[in-house]
Amino acid sequence: MQGIDKHFPGVHALKSVGFELRAGEVHALMGENGAGKSTLMKILSGVYRPDGGRILIDGAEVQIADPRASQALGIGIIHQELALMRDLTAAQNIWIGREPRLSLGRIDEARQNADTAAIFARMNLRLDPRTPVASLSIARQQMIEIAKALSYRPRVLIMDEPTAALNDAEIAELFSIIRQLRDEGVGIIYISHKMDEIKRISDRITVMRDGAHVATVDAATTAIGSIIAMMVGREIGDEQVVVPDLAQAPVALEVRGLTRGTELRDISFSLKKGEILGFAGLMGAGRTELARAIFGAEPADGGEILIHGRPARIRSPHDAVRAGIGYLSEDRKHYGLALGMDVRANIAMASLARFTDRLGRLDEPGLRKVARDHIARLRIRTPGDRQEVRFLSGGNQQKVVIAKWLLRDCDILIFDEPTRGIDVGAKAEIYHLLTDLAAAGKAIIVISSEMPEVLRLSHRIAVMCEGRLTGILPAASSQQAIMELATERQGGTA
Amino acid sequence: QDKMYVALISKGFQHQFWQAVKQGADKAGADLGVDVSFDGPDNETQVDKQMDMLAAALAKKPSAIGLAALDSQALIPQLKQAQAAKIPVIAFDSGVEGDIPVATASTDNLAASALAADKMAEFLGGEGKIAVVGHSQTSTTGIDRRDGFLNEIKEKYPKIEVIATEYGDGDQLKSTEITKAILAANPDIKGIFGTNEGSAIGVLNGVREMGAKIVVIGFDSGRAQKDAIRDGSMAGAITQNPVGIGYETVKAAVAAAKGEAVPKQIDTGFYWYDKSNIDDPKIAAVLYD
Amino acid sequence: MTDIGIERQEARRSGSAQQKLLAFASLIVLVAGFSLASPRFFQIDNILSILQATSVNGVLAVGVTMIIITGGIDLSIGTMMTFTAVMTGVVLTWGGMPLPLGILAAIGTGAACGLISGTLVAKARIPPFIATLGMMLVLKGLSLIVTGTKPIYFNGTEGYTLISQGSVIGRMLPAFPVPNGVLILFAVAGLVAWILGRTVLGRYTFALGSNEEAVRLSGVNTDRWKMAIYALAGGICGIAGLLISSRLNSAQPALGLGYELEAIAAVVIGGTSLSGGRGTILGTLIGALIMSVLTNGLRVLSVAPEWQTVVTGVIIIVAVYADQLRRRGSH
Amino acid sequence: MTDIGIERQEARRSGSAQQKLLAFASLIVLVAGFSLASPRFFQIDNILSILQATSVNGVLAVGVTMIIITGGIDLSIGTMMTFTAVMTGVVLTWGGMPLPLGILAAIGTGAACGLISGTLVAKARIPPFIATLGMMLVLKGLSLIVTGTKPIYFNGTEGYTLISQGSVIGRMLPAFPVPNGVLILFAVAGLVAWILGRTVLGRYTFALGSNEEAVRLSGVNTDRWKMAIYALAGGICGIAGLLISSRLNSAQPALGLGYELEAIAAVVIGGTSLSGGRGTILGTLIGALIMSVLTNGLRVLSVAPEWQTVVTGVIIIVAVYADQLRRRGSH
Ligand SMILES: Nc1ncnc2c1ncn2[C@@H]1O[C@H](COP(=O)(O)OP(=O)(O)OP(=O)(O)O)[C@@H](O)[C@H]1O
Ligand SMILES: Nc1ncnc2c1ncn2[C@@H]1O[C@H](COP(=O)(O)OP(=O)(O)OP(=O)(O)O)[C@@H](O)[C@H]1O
Ligand SMILES: [Mg+2]
Ligand SMILES: [Mg+2]
């Protein structure tokens, strides 16, 4: 790709960017949120047409007018935002447009399911190909997207933050597949904000900043620190978690025997004011379910929730928020944002009551002010607070959801994968923010599939497996100890 | 032991006219000691709905059926079924082709609206532009009333020009808007004929809203038309005898079910009424509110 | 509905103010066309008739715009309008109450019916299409039952027809006697535009249509707001009921079916999306005006009724297509 | 990695088959209720007339189910049905052609009209509501224009009424003379169910309704498939046109308006979501049956027509509510 240029209204997203991918290499593309990574890849995959520049494959210039043209050239992509048909099954999603056919336009479902099962087996994913996608967690949906891209057997494979929702075990699985593909000569473009991954998997690294190409370097010979410096233009300190003394702190949230079907089994724990409780576990361990149950999104069948020592009846998110609980969902697109509305409206969504007078009028100047404050505080990259959220880059959308809950100012905050898709710099800032919030007396639960994140933030670490709370560990625990609890099955079989 | 039961299938039930028919039928039912049911589709296009109603009526095994057919040809197979089951059929409001109905109680709509045309010509002195606001382009009554009126004008009054024929589905508001558009397009218009109650009142409203001074002739009755005729904003109207239609239909049905002879044609008549005769007992008896 | 590949729509926002003006263009073209085709069209009287003809449909359309923005639909507005008119008749003519109580009866009945629909949708989770279809049938039947299928006339109520047909403006500006019905339409439109643009209720209306689950998970009592929106739309139906019964000086129990389709068509022509989250009252007004200009113009030109239908169908498609082209062209 | 996920999904899937059976329950309750209320209801003749009454609406509903699953809507099906009947009349009665050509005319006309709607939706990007509203008006007008507003009778075509009213089964099983129209309904339903469940076209129908953008990003020519679906639905409208004209032995040009609402209602009562991506033909059939059992039953009970409307409205809401409760209960 040479001299690629792209404008959006109010944004010069790509400024004459050049990019080169060799066959059989893993090329990492890095940059802050909103740097233009996804846009560049969407141009390569035919979603957007560039305003200027050329694309060459094997030395010959090609025109990529639409996704089909890109596919025909052997380019496969895993989009940052999941693009799945929720009412269809996993297998149907993977083979859409390329269904194995029988006579009369019939689909060979058996073969389709078998092929899917084969891909899943290769990915070590235990999932029935006939499962409807709508019933899968974000992580599994992500796995479906990966399976779909693999099924194309592309020459060039673009992966835009494929691991944002995955945990270590799955990432390891994915990496072995990537290496295998690379050895087969596939060129892979890999976008991620997880620095350790970049070092582990990539051969070369291209860094972008503000829509421009900064540098392309060799992965093996470049230090992470200098890559980060190229990305953000400044140094980021690495801090260790400091566990405050909470012996005297009152309990903010207590959960007793929370149960729902087979998803949540008799879960009890308590959370103190000023404490950050991390939740670790494998995909499908039930952490999200637990959060949703506490928040009243899908109320539990049994058990008790006490807030500041008093039993609370939480049958809906409305009850929860009134009781001072906030919940940031792992699925920002479906559960976090009104994509068609602007940044200001989204940030204010949970706090409108505060900005309403007796006639029901909204205090727009007030809303504008808080929206702009949060845009500045979280460095949300947007042309303005009236930009529709769907036009923001993935990481910036995530920041908008965080801003929504910061503005609401809840006593108890449950953050489910809060840094999904957020760049290193911003991540450090958010960690800071959470620590500050805790220091200011908030009680915080952080659910994360990123072990370093859990270790970096948590004052205590709760581990779940198969809907049970298998243990709560102190801050300085080893990953080994966590993994043991995360795989501790009932009856001891692993 | 069984009380006799007569099923009436009409062309509608929501309009005043049909309610008056029903009233007559109910009265006959009470007088003669028989059960009467009355059903009809929402509007006069729904031929197949009427078919389903007839089927449901047949399932109830009535002593006789009264039918105001939306399309008599289309209903023939079912009427044959009735015939085979020895259920006599009385046609009302409009006729049914063939010899299946043992009697027909109806108004001659062609003649009735020809009378309206004569009256219109009389008020206009035999010349001028006029328009028709019809209630349906496709139903038999709609077509008959339009054509009866237009043909009479064409044949007898060469100096009268009909400049527009529009259809408002018998919806008052729609007919009002139509009238206003006609008046706007033709400021020199002298008269408008509305072919049923809803159309006539719509015309009246339109004329009133535009502040026009023209001859309005209506059809059927109802409170608003009667008031308008009394205060002079409507020149007059044709009325049928809906109560009589209902009454005679049930009467004939009962007679036929008992195997008695019934007259083949029962003409329930139509009348012109205006300010001068509206309170005449004979007229007042066939008007409804 | 991913946010990938939305290049097509990316200019929407910046273009949106401009877009409204451009939707207006379709209307202008129609008016200009009819004016050229017939000298009778662009006459003050005829223009006033068109405005008057827009009033009932316009008010209904404004009300249902709110519901459509939430991603719902209301099929009952036509028969609900009739039912509110009937209840006004019951209060005024049968009950002999003073006019303000009649007005209250119309708006109150509408709001109550709307609240029922809203409850069915929000609490019982019945799809809006079914809940309001059921409501439409129920109200249609009830109007006939309450009145005994006979119209109720408002002859006993002094000045009832003035609600829609009088002209406050005409008293001041005799040359331009805009009927009160039109003023009421603009007042209702202004009020709803204000609610949508400036109040919490409006904000939630858009938010519900945009992503209801996300709003619920923000701790908003979505059920309650949704019920409020349906109730408000019902109240507005009540105003339409007042307008139509004032024009007809009677409550006609058989009328109303089919009015919902016309109102929804006006809303969609005005650019509001049936999938929710997007819409403007100005657009709805323009949509309603396009419909009545079209109907009136074709009648003034004395086009045969069956051709009127054909031409209306074609022009509706063309107008929306033109709008579509402009949107695509505007980036 | 656990297999909890798998277990749970299996429970879900088996729940969905069960669910359809449960939707069936509403129908059973209705039939049982009416049978108890009147001995006349559960008679072979009456059951056959209910089935016959379902045939036209059922075929329309089956056709529009496909479109609704794509997330679209088709308001033109009622008038399209009429227009196809008219064209058959033109070919058979006016043109004196043999029956097969008439059948071809109906299906071909329907498919062509559907293709036009589909093109407007897919290529011109006109919202389905508007495209098919326009189509509805155009076809309504055209039917009147072509026929000169008078019905065309099929008296010249031997055996035309047998298409719907004859009984192939009756010849073999005289005790149970199921009319051909009903067989045709079941055949069409079977065909469409097969298409939806087994073929690529069916797959894209669901996929389009589920996430059109994602389908496009997968390199599928979404426009072409969408047009095919509208054309197919149009062809099915043509079959409905044959059925209704065969029942009436005539093409009635004014008929048709309002049939779309009834068909769409059947689809939604049958559990298909108006927002697309979800739906079954079996559900649509049950929905259509619920509607005609309701109508027939109330008539057999001699309920006054205005009360019929009220009761129908209430029962539709209750039936869907019961369905809703069951779904919520089932997990
Ligand atoms: N469709 C669009 N319309 C308007 N602006 C857009 C659009 N898509 C992207 N942008 C803008 O272009 C810039 C680059 O976005 P892009 O999605 O490429 O960022 P990114 O590098 O992938 O970020 P992230 O790490 O957060 O995913 C951002 O400022 C974004 O707001
Ligand atoms: N909305 C949903 N409906 C039905 N099943 C769901 C839903 N969301 C998740 N699941 C399933 O429930 C199980 C528990 O998932 P959950 O999301 O609670 O796990 P988790 O511990 O948060 O893990 P992760 O978020 O890392 O996947 C998984 O098998 C998942 O597929
Ligand atoms: Mg990105
Ligand atoms: Mg989770």
Your description of this structure?
- The complex is a heterotetramer, with 1 copy of chain A (494 residues), 1 copy of chain B (289 residues) and 2 copies of chain C (331 residues).
- With 494 residues, chain A is an alpha/beta fold.
- In chain A, 33% of the residues lie in helices and 23% in strands.
- Chain A is built from 17 helices and 20 strands.
- In chain A, the strands form 4 sheets. A 6-stranded mixed sheet of chain A has the order 6-7-8-3-9-10, with helices on both faces. In chain A, strands 16-17-18-13-19-20 form a 6-stranded mixed sheet, with helices on both faces.
- In chain A, β9 (204-209) and β10 form a beta hairpin.
- Chain A is globular.
- With 289 residues, chain B is an alpha/beta fold.
- Chain B has helices at 16-32, 47-59, 76-84, 109-124, 140-156, 172-185, 197-210, 223-231, 242-257, 281-286; strands at 5-9, 35-39, 64-67, 89-93, 103-106, 128-134, 160-167, 189-194, 215-219, 236-240, 265-267, 270-274.
- In chain B, α1 packs parallel to α9, α4 packs across α5 (140-156) and α6 (172-185) packs across α7 (197-210).
- Chain C is mainly α.
- Chain C has one domain (40-330): Orthogonal Bundle (ABC transporter involved in vitamin B12 uptake, BtuC).
- Chain C is 73% helix and 1% strand.
- Chain C has 13 helices and 2 strands, in the order αααααβαααααβααα.
- In chain C, strands 1-2 form a two-stranded antiparallel ribbon.
- In chain C, α2 (44-69) packs antiparallel against α12 and α3 crosses α10 (222-248).
- Classes of the chains: A alpha/beta (494), B alpha/beta (289), C mainly alpha (331).
- Chains in contact: A-C, A-D, B-C, B-D, C-D.
- At the C-D interface, α5, α11 and α13 of C face α5, α9, α11 and α13 of D.
- One adenosine-5'-triphosphate is lined by residues 8, 11, 13, 31, 33-39, 80, 381, 391-396, 421, 423 of chain A.
- Chain A: It comes from Paracoccus limosus.
- Chain A: Keywords: ATP-binding, Cell membrane, Membrane, Nucleotide-binding, Repeat, Sugar transport, Translocase, Transport.
- Chain A: This is ATP-binding cassette domain-containing protein.
